[in-house]
Amino acid sequence: MALVAEFFLGRSATGNVSGDRRGLVSLDTLSLLECADLLDQLRYHDHAAVAAEADRWRAAERQVSLSRGDPEFPLYRAPASSGLSEELGSRSPYAIAAYLRLWSACLDRNVRGLLTDDTPPQRWSLLNLDMKRANQPRFRIGVRFGAAPPVKAGPFAALGEAMRLEVRPMARRSHATGELAAEWGSRKPTDSGYVGDDLFDATVLGLNFAVHPDGSRMEGAPGLVLFHLVHREAGDGIAVGLSIPSGGPDHTEAVSPARRRGTPYAE
Predict the structure, then answer these.
(1) How many CB atoms lie within 10 A of CB 181?
(2) 227 forms bridges with which residues in the sheet?
(3) DSSP string, 198-221
(4) Peptide bond preceding 120: is omega within 30 degrees of 0, i.e. cis?
(5) Which of 103, 124, 152, 227 lies in disulfide reach of 114, CB 3.0 to 4.6 Å?
(6) pLDDT per residue as tens digits for the range 175-221
(7) Which residues fall within 8 angstroms of residue 257, CB to CB, at 6 or more apart?
């Protein structure tokens, strides 16, 4: 929670954040590598590095000829586990961070045997890399509030005081594992005009950008990392979801069947 609150505290001091009672959105954006580094700073009591996941990403490193001197190396940087680690597969923030680094690495390489996640997919080795670099996504960071009792202490209370906002967590069900029961906190449009959490930045900032028929973002659109402040009896927690635009490499271990929308996982 401190990581997210401090991210927005820093931007509130420079005027690089906008929002209201629904939540906050950064006005500046993060690159693929900066976004990956942010996700890798998240810490969970029952999820860390998974050996099978590390093996998969080492295979991806070999496929794109990534070496120790490259800024994307290593792709997978999950913290070491001190015990059993829950296997989350493509839902893991650390796997998504690895995917974003893979995308960055592919922007300078005509990788053979790799396809894009477009419909229909295209061979990466035949793409115009100058155009892919120009259309690579940059990510806004958001945090979603709700209607649970207001936060009275801790880093989010300090954030609310600094921004003169009453910060209220979201009231959301979670499984015994700590995962939220739904992919997004409130994905569907509402009568009040809210278009859903996967377009939270568009709603708060009054933006429009192209989306696919399934609601996912088209190539060239900004991406979104949306943290959810979730109320829990044992103490409020943070969950995270992503809207990742199309146009990246089709690495099935990181791109979900729901088309580039990460599943929030409560901290």
Answers:
(1) 9
(2) 143, 240
(3) GGHHHHHHT----B-TTSPBPTTS
(4) yes
(5) 124
(6) 555 555 555 544 455 554 456 788 999 999 999 988 998 888 999 99
(7) none
On the question of pLDDT at 9 being above 50, the answer is yes
Q: How many helices (H) and strands (E) does the chain have?
A: 7, 6
pLDDT digits (tens, 9 = 90+) for 44-70: 888 889 999 999 999 999 999 999 999
Q: Which residues of 208-225 are buried (b: 16+ CB within 10 A; e: fewer)?
A: eeebbeebbbebebbbbb
